[in-house]
Specification:
Structural class: mainly beta
Main location: secreted
Organism: Populus tomentosa (Chinese white poplar)
EC number: 1.10.3.2
Strand content: 35-45%
Catalytic activity: 4 hydroquinone + O2 = 4 benzosemiquinone + 2 H2O
Number of helices: 5
Strand order of the largest sheet: 10-9-12-17-14-15
InterPro entries: Cu-oxidase-like_N, Cu-oxidase_2nd, Cu-oxidase_C, Cu-oxidase_fam, Cu_oxidase_CS, Cu_oxidase_Cu_BS, CuRO_1_LCC, CuRO_2_LCC
Amino acid sequence: METRNLTVKQVSYCLFLSIFVIFSFQAHFSEAETHYREFVIQAKPVKRLCRTHNTITVNGLFPGPTLEVRDGDTLVIKAVNNARYNVTLHWHGVRQLRNPWADGPDRVTQCPIRPGRSYTYRFTIENQEGTLWWHAHSRWLRATVYGALIIHPKLGFPYPFPMPRAEIPILLGEWWDRNPMDVLRIADFTGAAPNISDAYTINGQPGDLYRCSKQETVRFPVGSGEKILLRVINSALNQELFFGVANHRLTVVAVDAAYTKLFTTSVIMIAPGQTTDVLLTADQTPGHYYMAARAYNSANAPFDNTTTTAILEYKTAPGNANKGKQSTPIFPRLPGFNDTNSAIAFTSRLRSPSKVKVPLQIDENLFFTVGLGLINCTNPNSPRCQGPNGTRFAASINNMSFVLPKRNSLMQAYYQGQPGIFTTDFPPVPPVKFDYTGNVSRGLWQPVKGTKLYKLKFGAKVQIVFQDTSIVTVEDHPMHLHGYHFAVIGSGFGNFNPQKDPARFNLIDPPYRNTIGTPPGGWVAIRFEADNPGIWLLHCHLDSHLNWGLAMAFLVENGVGMLQSVQPPPLDLPRC
């Protein structure tokens, strides 16, 4: 009898526990939302710098709509192409686990959405929170087609830093006083560098220092003593930027949707593709203070040497209440355009909040040279050879200049088993060893064009050292890896020394990023685990360099079972 009662109690307890687990599981997922949006890509008149241009926008907005979600939420975004160009959208920094079909780079994971057609991006945010962004990933449409993607913690989970009174997305951009697609088309024809931008922007506006712009300068009202979270995004096409707010210190709390150890600075350096979250306390005399951004230019090349501004405006500042005469805003002290020391001083302070899991046993040890090159012309006087000394500009990784396929996307060709679209023999090291940052022989300046991928087994532990070269010019190349974030374990100037430099690697609390710059004339090392199957683009986020071929792609093979394999493509995936 006692045995029977004990059995009944055990069964009852197990039944109760099962029901509790089921309801807890349902409650956890009931918190997650599905966000349905329609993004209509269309031309709209936009006036900047005294002139109106028919500008490609999303839903008529420039910048485009801000998406605000929570970790665990699903997004279903129908992209309708009412513009005259092919287009795709990329959700920059989203892991897209097992789902390359939603990643977006044109001819890599999908064929483009043609004019008059649509495609619905479906993806779930998994264990990510912070500031990311979205942008077009077709040619130069990214110049105006972009917006913020803000991922809040799950309900009931606070920020790991003081709660701000308000949160403000700060989108830094570039503006051309002409159609950016025409700028690219001319550069493609001539082989020369594309024209530089005419202005930088903050949330789409150039600011006080440009013609016909003062009335539309963006203003951010704050109350004295308030803490504000600035979610800074560099959505510029081709330029790293310094950013600061006059007389205010910035406390860095996250980069690329990964929390950091808190530290305070007066200026940040942020590369295209990167995000930086900073806390600002309104602790100054009530007044008007410029926030400003201008170029960090590490290359020996022309650049836009202008400055964009917005205004941090205290609500109790003199002149605000009665719309009277307002004081001239105070300007921040920003480093000089070529101040690499300030740029490195900022990035070298980034650390994860605590010890993180970094791969220690490496399966794939890759050494990638990144930089520019020149294609020699048989007729140097040709109108198609207007680069230096009658050449055409190019760029490469390990001397391979990446060419996007035309007949199909890489991912669709791989999934369908279509041959002849790509090969998997991308070199793990440069074909020739040389003094990468020294005086490089002109015989090494011309890269080879091709569509080569590098194959990784699922679960492989990968290390990549990106080595800048002095071919044409040294430069900070912001390298972005789709589908992953990675630990930045070390960097330095000059040529990487595999015997000495690894001893200085930070394998305890390195920062995690999705985009990292190579120090000009130097190297940077990253590590990650290849736990996301599919084809994932790696490229320089300076779009002029991407167009020249500074890219490659990883083919990460399926693992074991459904949870380690690419999910089937959606039925509405565009075809080439």
